[in-house]
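Consider this pair:
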Amino acid sequence: MTLRPLPAACLAVLLVACGPRNGDVTAATTSAAPAAAATGPFASHEVARFDEPWAMSFLPDGRLLVTEKEGRLKLLALEARPDGTHAAGALGEITGLPEVAYGGQGGLGDVVVHPGFRNNGLVYLSYAEPGDGDTRGAAVARARLVLDNQGGGRLEGLKVIWRQVPKVTGQGHYSHRLAFGPDGHLWISSGERQKFDPAQDMASNLGKILRLNDDGSVPADNPFPDQGEVAAQVWSLGHRNVLGIAFDADGQLWNHEMGPKGGDELNRVERGANYGYPIVSNGDHYDGRPIPDHDTQPQYNAPVITWTPVISPSSLVIYSGDAFPDWTGNALITGLSSESLVRVAFDGEGGAREAERFDMGHRMREIEQGPQGHLWLLEDGDGARLLELVPPPAPTAPAEP
């Protein structure tokens, strides 16, 4: 099903005070659309700042890897505080990164750790790399992370295991989000690089979601094994700019993607499915040319939710922690132009609805769930704050007279 956008009067939002730089915790107040029951406020505090961060990933020891678009990988230690929140500890640099093509939406992108990191030390990076002439394309590399005693480390044995095909001009819609699935496969979102038609071309891996083995080889049970080497990588096609991929507790993959002028999407990703872009979309081209809606061509998989006005979704988690029990199984989406955190509730039958929206007061780039079930958010841009979201402090009982 497709949910139409709520009227503007219904888009009341939660205003979050993100706290001063000394890390003091400030509580949020809440308001939500009439049809959505608010789950209560959370508290947010600043932990650190980064320049143009794009992604983060926790190591098993609780330290945090953070990518910065210009081509830096930082390692942040976190120190527990008595109230259960965290303060920034040592901040180190990881060396040995590949050359990145920085500019526009390009640069160093996602970072994830291998499910067997404790034994193999492998981390995976996505980034934009230069090609011939003025061309660029996304790539994924893996390497062994070797930590030192000074709070930093280096990457060893870096090897590119996947590339966008073909490299094209322009600096947009790389997508290059990474996720490991429950079965250990590596999933990659590949944007259509603002070139439209490659999303439907099986000789290209642009505008697709890819499923690979952890070494970059192609699983034999992918849906298109007989259509060529590039097509064999493909799990689904007809995507635009996919900046969020995540699995729910049942192993179902979900993605969100930016629509053109209107029509941001949340999709239930199915094996071999075509999501229609650029043939259909619930938005239109930026020059005003209309694009037929999904319901005009039902052979293409329609989004579960669309947003117009857009939220500019930038990252996605499906919550599984204990800190916010009312949100278990919900999707949490960060928004750029909407400067928001959007909570989506699933109905158990493949449907979903926007349940709540929180005004974060800043373009939000990334969200991750931390080891204690706290939520960690990165703002976008220079001097961007790393925020930790925690349950609000328990109310203090009034003193007896």
